[in-house]
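Entry type: protein chain
Record version: 2
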Amino acid sequence: MNQNYEARLSQSTPRNGAFTPTVSIFLSEMWPHELLDIELPRFRANTFITPQTHIKSRNMKFNFLITLMLLVVLAGYSQEVLLKNVRVIDGTGKRPSEKMNIVLDQGRIKTISKKEIISTGHVIDLTGKTIMPLITNVHGHLGMSKGTTVVPENYNREHIARELERYQSYGVGTVVSMGTDKELIFSMRDASRSGKLPGATVFTAGYGFRPPLGSRPQETGMEKLYRPATAGEATENVKTLAVLKPDMIKIWVDDMGGTAEKIKPDVYRAIVSEAHKHGIRVAAHLFYLEDAHLLLDAGVDIFAHSIRDKEVDKALIERMKEKGIIYIPTLTRDAYEFFYGTERPWMNDPFFQASLEPGVLEMISSNEYKKRILNNPRLQENKDAFNMALKNLKKLHDAGVMVALGTDSGAQPVRAQGFSEHLELQLMVEAGLTPLQAITVATRNACLALKLSDQGMLLPGMRADFVVLNSNPSEGIKSTQSIHSVWKNGVQVSSGPITK
């Protein structure tokens, strides 16, 4: 029997920040599963590692083949990379630094300098190009939409893996799946965070909390949500969920335009209280200013959408700052409620079209779909909510509230994963933020919202996670779409979403 051996280098970053490369050995024909995981100690370039040090096998041919694979993989990993003459947007908000030289080593940024650097490693001349940190999406959804459908069958490993690859190709390095997940997400989250699952890194809010259904039909894609009727039931639900170690917990406090009930205050207070006992933060889907005040009273940590009914008041702003609330505007979520009713210039752009599931472009381009949008009795309400979201974003950002990027992408077929994150940047600029402020919201702030202290900025010692752009987004935010390449842990992982 012919045996095809495959070695894959993954890069694990445990919670303590230590970096451990792992080589996974597969026998791709005779055994489709991972055969060996070999954790390698830190090593320097030119270190020679023998298979006898790490594996025991009586099969000399097997040992020899694995030795070759290890040497090939490690040769690429251990070599320093020098990026020359590149413009750097570092994610801190400061002006771009021109003609910088960056050394990458073992998945991290070793140095950033204007000085001429002589390197014996791999040298890449990026003259005329710009790099910025990877985007982090603190509010997305996985496994819900496929094609033009939202059905339970869409939630499967293969489809979610493709979504993560899509996000990554658009320069989105991390995504939070916000409360609509199922059992599968926790093993995928762990594989993603250990470097064994390619694509954007996964965070999850697990199973969210909504009110009891009563006589209303089950919402598609939300089959695993908790629906406690009492504070006691909510407390027990949180205890059960906490065992799975979600990265946060999501609650829905919104009547969806008068079509649904909200979680009662005594119930969501119990959720927040019990979550905090387990060290888990709570994110709230909200719409109304009044609810924002009540949620602050309850101790909620994250506003997962914009406040869209009224302009935020001074008292709310001061309390949000005092409590360190994270505000996720999800402007695209509200924009998609009416944007497709008229032709948008970007609808013909390959960068947008490449982000769509099969059949979605045809659906949103049809006259029938446009008429449905334009004849929606809530059309003006949707536009008003969007405009209020823009106004409140500007007001909160100017006041110093922590704003982090989120889009609600993936929850519906029209909320395109990958493209939405770039559209969100444009809408933030439309709201009055500068391009550099919007980029900081999408990079440094979003990583701080997830407590990722070594990501979101391009500084020495930080992870080498960045996107290389062909033009300069500080001069025009749409340039974030000019993707040349995507890098993660110091390795190029994509050339962008469009076939070059």
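Comment: Confidence is low (pLDDT under 50) at residues 1-58, 70-76.
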